[in-house]
Design goal:
The chain contains twelve helices and twelve strands. It has about 290 residues and is an alpha/beta fold.
């Protein structure tokens, strides 16, 4: 089994969907599906449970994913060890997706390749202090670090938790709602929004609130639902989602966004980097300042 197959498996595990994973890999969906079948045949076991369009990783898949993550990390170390400072890829990890705003300005002046990845909040400190991150985009809660002579922090975006409801829902008349008022409420969520979902989980924990997760959909299925005539669900969202996706704004035209109040429902997102890498990151940091500051 070669490394390409393993990395393709990892992408399927990340997106839980053959079509979306194939788009990210720039290969056809049938070809990726065939690769997955070959991997499962070689290992003699299934790696996912099929539920509609979703592929839910099983215990065998999680075992392989551990090896895949180790292998990917090793390949990155090899690339970086033999790349010159001018050619080396820039590694950026973020808990929220507003990165598209930066790209247009960045690539006008710089051709340095960027590896950008959305990650869960709790993984940010390890990526920054122990792994290959050049830059992380996070709030103070998960970084648990202060500005120092070595660790630099540049605040860029205030992010607000919102509750998206259908226009016909009685809650649509509210301008804000306290998180405690949602205790026991049936709420839908999407499986794709890593930074938002675990942010919400932490908010619920801190405010001692429990909600009923009525349904979990991938982003593609959620957008299909919004565009349909079916009863539209209540869902948590963040202000950054509207900033980063025209499709999201378009699909949310018949909904109302309500500000959610309570502990940690508003957070300041900052760009964190090491002072020792400041010269190497000069173009990227300047572009951040032009876009947000």
């Amino acid at each position: 089994m070669n490394s390409d197959k393993i990395l393709q498996f990892k992408m399927i595990a990340q997106y839980e969907n053959i079509t979306r994973a194939s788009e990210a890999l720039f290969i056809s969906a049938p070809a990726l599906s065939k690769t997955l079948s070959k991997i499962e045949a070689e290992l003699g076991c299934h790696l996912f449970e099929r539920k509609g369009k979703r592929l839910l990783i099983n215990e065998n898949g999680r075992k392989l994913l551990e090896f895949a993550n180790q292998m990917e990390g090793l390949l990155k170390q090899i690339d970086r060890a033999f790349a010159s400072a001018e050619d080396r890829e820039l590694f950026v990890y973020s808990i929220c997706n507003f990165f598209s705003f930066i790209m247009e300005n960045y690539f006008r002046e710089s051709v340095r390749s960027i590896h950008y990845e959305l990650v869960q909040n709790h993984s940010i400190p390890d990526l920054f202090f122990h792994k290959d991150a050049d830059v992380v985009v996070s709030d103070d809660f998960f970084m648990k670090s202060k500005e120092s002579d070595q660790v630099m922090k540049m605040p860029v975006l205030n992010e607000q938790l919102l509750l998206s409801v259908p226009a016909e829902n009685p809650l649509a008349q509210k301008r804000s709602i306290n998180i405690k008022e949602l205790n026991g409420m049936s709420i839908m969520r999407t499986s794709d929004i890593k930074g938002v979902n675990d942010w919400v989980e932490k908010i619920l924990e801190l405010n001692h609130v429990k909600v009923r997760w009525a349904l979990t959909l991938d982003a593609e299925s959620y957008h299909d639902l919004l565009a349909s005539d079916l009863v539209r669900p209540i869902i948590f969202e963040s202000s950054s989602q509207y900033m980063s996706s025209k499709e999201y704004r378009r699909n949310s035209a018949n909904r109302r966004s309500i500000k959610v109040t309570g502990e940690y429902t508003n957070r300041m997102i900052s760009v964190w980097y090491n002072r020792a890498k400041q010269a190497y990151l000069e173009d990227f940091i300047r572009c951040i300042r032009e876009s947000f500051c």
